[in-house]
Write a structure and sequence with these properties.
Elements lengths: L1 H20 L3 H21 L6 H29 L2 H27 L3 H22 L4 H4 L1
């Protein structure tokens, strides 16, 4: 149930982003699958097969909650602000999501929170690498 609701929120978010900013919905979804697979691999490496379901569910649910927050922020910010502020707010929520995912994975593998955040950062970099190997690098970041 939680995963189904999270997938709906995820598709709504990326449909909004795709319509407004021209991103590829299928690539976004594939990037999320890479993230989930990476967290499953981390749990397998630590021998915590029994925690895969609860950890992945927590990560997906938190992702959905933060995407709902970002949808609300983006909708409200369009009334008052520019694209640059939208991008800054999106990066702020992304940073927050990395911290949340780091906390979740650190509790799952029973190590210090810094270890969890380091794992989340590495997985985020993996996601970016995957995304930009199949998608276009944003023009705003180049100039």
């Amino acid at each position: 149930m939680t995963i189904g609701a999270a997938i709906v929120v995820h598709f709504l978010f990326y449909a909004l982003v795709e319509t407004e900013y021209g991103t590829d919905l299928s690539l976004e979804f594939a990037t999320e699958l890479v993230k989930i697979a990476a967290y499953v691999i981390v749990l397998l490496l630590f021998g915590l097969i029994s925690r895969i379901t609860q950890t992945i569910t927590a990560i997906i649910a938190c992702n959905a909650i933060l995407e709902l927050l970002l949808i609300a922020i983006l909708m409200l910010s369009r009334l008052f602000t520019s694209y640059e502020l939208d991008a800054a707010l999106a990066w702020l929520v992304t940073f927050w999501l990395i911290l949340v995912e780091g906390h979740i994975i650190s509790r799952a593998i029973e190590l210090h929170w810094i270890t969890g955040i380091a794992i989340a950062v590495v997985i985020f970099i993996l996601q970016l690498g995957f995304y930009f190997s199949f998608g276009e690098f944003p023009e705003a970041a180049v100039s």
